[in-house]
Amino acid sequence: MTTEKLQKILEIGIALSEEKDYNRLLEQILSDVMWLTNCDAGTLYLKTGDYLNFKIMRNDTMKTYQGGDGEAVDLPPVPISSGTVSGLAALTEQTICIDDVWNCREYDLSGPIQYDKITHYHSQSMLVVPMKNRRGEISGVLQLINAQNEAKETIPFAKDCVRLVESVASQAAVAIQNMEYLTAIKGLFHSFVQVMSTAIDERTPYNATHTRNMVRYGERFVDYLNQKQTDAGEEVLFGPERKEEFLMSVWFHDIGKLVTPLEIMNKAARLTPQEMKDIQYRFETMRLRLKIQLLEQKLSEEDYSTGIARMEEGEKLIFRANEAGFLPDETLAEIERLAEYTCPENPKKHWLTEDELHRLQIRKGTLTGEERQIMEEHVKITRKLLSEIEFPKQYEHVIRWASSHHEYINGTGYPEHISGEAVPYEVRILTILDIYDALTADDRPYKPGMPAEKALSILQAMAEKEGKLDIALTRQFIESRSWDNAKEA
């Protein structure tokens, strides 16, 4: 064994442990063993159930290469049985080395011979090595064909090469197993994230698709930003890991709403249903009192009609104001005057209680200042909950990004009121996505969804006039049309 090959073995071991891309790992395994044995062709199979699936095939003489970058090899799987040499190697968990395929009587080599007849290739020497992981299970098979000497003449596989390939096969099996473990753990983690996000969204019918929509917008917008960079001949802004970390923060951004009281999250109007019932009962009682006063001749017909009309107008005003998305000054003034009226039977009792008046004077939305403060607490709870998760290094920014999606670059956001460069780039994007979906959502209790173009004009005003959003990113989001058909995707 040459010093060069020993050095290569060390390099292979290091490379296999460091490779993070599954497809490149498989390509590297086959490439390395072909280099070590100086062979002309090779196939890497992976075991699934009772079959070996073709993953990568390479033949230098025929200049063919299939299976790279995860491309599927269009060949049927090989049964793990004595019917083929690769299946037999997996079945017996033993290395098979053949010096002359066409003249071998020990194994069934009809498959390679038939393949040679079709392709006019000549398989002569063959080495088939099972890959066994740390649990002692067969994870795949390496099949190498036609070892060559320096003169490019086909020769048998040397014994020292067989041991080298067995060594690499063992390392490769462990590397594949490790990567499959990581993939499984990662898949489990992603499933957990999406389950938690679904639990948040479906906790209330008024937030059913918010996070999923944001993830769709976010993925498209990030791809758009990357394409802009590529078109300009510059490095992409979001590589695979940064993109995944950003989308993870989107999935998690509202996790704090798990503990937000439903009576606040589901509040469709300024007054609670019970408060509306109380008001309706109060007005009905006042009408009856007026009727009694009329019958007792304590009230004129004109005063009775005037009183009834005023009550009906007042009740309509309350209903209208209760469910309006926004109350102008005129309406607020009408409500103020309404609250000054008193009940016919008790001059000290007003048409509206102080608490009802307080709720009906909410200018925008349905929440009082106290309720809004409780709602805003969800970002602090998001940070608290996510801090209990031991995120791997590749997700180290998720906690900060997810819990900062209500921060504005002019410092008027919450909870920390950070501003300028202190607001991370990813948070600026997340905030735009969150606001856009909130504006266009048609499942919110306090307002109907608005058309996309109107929502975009609001985003633009928040960026260019109010200084809350990143101007460049807002313009790029508008240009990207990342929301087009995203809700149906």
The domain tally reads 3
- Taking pLDDT < 50 over at least 5 consecutive residues as the criterion, the unreliable ranges are none
The CATH class designation of the largest domain is Alpha Beta
Give the full name of the CATH homologous superfamily of the largest domain: GAF domain
Q: Could you spell the SSE succession in H and E letters? A: HHEEEEHEHEEEHHHHHHHEEHHHHHHH
The chain-level structural class is alpha+beta
C-alpha termini separation: 57 Å
Query: Please, how many helices?
Result: 18
- Average pLDDT score: 89
Q: Tell me roughly what share of residues is in helical segments.
A: 40-55%
Assigned CATH architecture of the largest domain: 2-Layer Sandwich
| Beta-strand content | 5-15%
Globular, elongated, flat, extended or rod-shaped: what is the shape?
elongated
Q: Using only CA atoms, what is the Rg?
A: 36 Å
**What is the tally of beta strands?**
10
Main sheet record: 8 strands, antiparallel
CATH topology category name of the largest domain: Beta-Lactamase
Q: Outline of this structure?
A:
Helices cover 53% and strands 11% of the residues. By secondary structure, it is of the alpha+beta class. It folds into 3 domains: 3-181, Beta-Lactamase, CATH 3.30.450; 203-263 and 373-488, Hypothetical protein af1432, CATH 1.10.3210; 269-365, no CATH class.
Written description of the protein model:
This protein has helices spanning 3-18, 22-37, 85-92, 110-119, 159-202, 210-231, 240-252, 262-265, 273-295, 301-323, 329-338, 354-360, 369-376, 378-386, 398-402, 425-440, 452-464, 471-480, and strands at residues 39-48, 51-59, 64-66, 78-79, 96-98, 126-132, 138-148, 154-155, 342-343, 346-350. The chain is of the alpha+beta class and 489 residues long. It contains 18 helices and ten strands. The chain is elongated and about 125 Å long. It folds into three domains: 3-181, 2-Layer Sandwich (Beta-Lactamase), CATH 3.30.450; 203-263 and 373-488, Hypothetical protein af1432 (Orthogonal Bundle); 269-365, no CATH class. 53% of the residues lie in helices and 11% in strands. The mean pLDDT is 89.
